[in-house]
């Protein structure tokens, strides 16, 4: 799930990044919990992803959608327990 932080200083950029991330099937459901926080100069992704591959995907999509804004990643990776 991808959502926009309530305190986003630049909601237009935050929603653009959110839409780019949420439109990808690997970033929905139980594979990620990402909150997008955007100021006028920086976009921050906070939360977790299921693994490093999904984390890298989120980073690439966010950088494309953020335009001139710098993107900071504060995502941790969680490995799902396989039984």
Description:
The structure is a single chain. The protein is an alpha/beta fold. 31% of the residues lie in helices and 31% in strands. The chain is built from two helices and four strands, in the order βαββαβ. It has helices spanning 11-22, 52-65, and strands spanning 2-4, 32-38, 42-49, 70-77. The protein has a four-stranded mixed beta sheet, covered by helices on one side. Helix 1 packs across helix 2 (52-65).
In short:
The protein is α/β, with parallel strands linked by helices.
What attributes does this structure have?
4-stranded mixed β-sheet, 83 residues, single chain, 31% helix, alpha/beta
Helix-strand blueprint:
Elements: E1 2-4, H1 11-22, E2 32-38, E3 42-49, H2 52-65, E4 70-77
Parallel strand pairs: 1-2, 3-4
Antiparallel strand pairs: 2-3
Helix pairs in contact: 1-2
**Unreliable segments (pLDDT under 50, ≥5 consecutive)?**
none
Note the run of SSEs as H and E.
EHEEHE
Report how far the terminal alpha carbons are from each other. Answer: 24 Å
Q: Beta-strand level of the residues, as a percent range?
A: 25-35%
Give the number of DSSP strands: 4
Percent helix among the residues?
Answer: 25-40%
Q: Let me know the largest β-sheet.
A: 4 strands, mixed
The pLDDT mean sits at 90
Give the overall silhouette.
globular
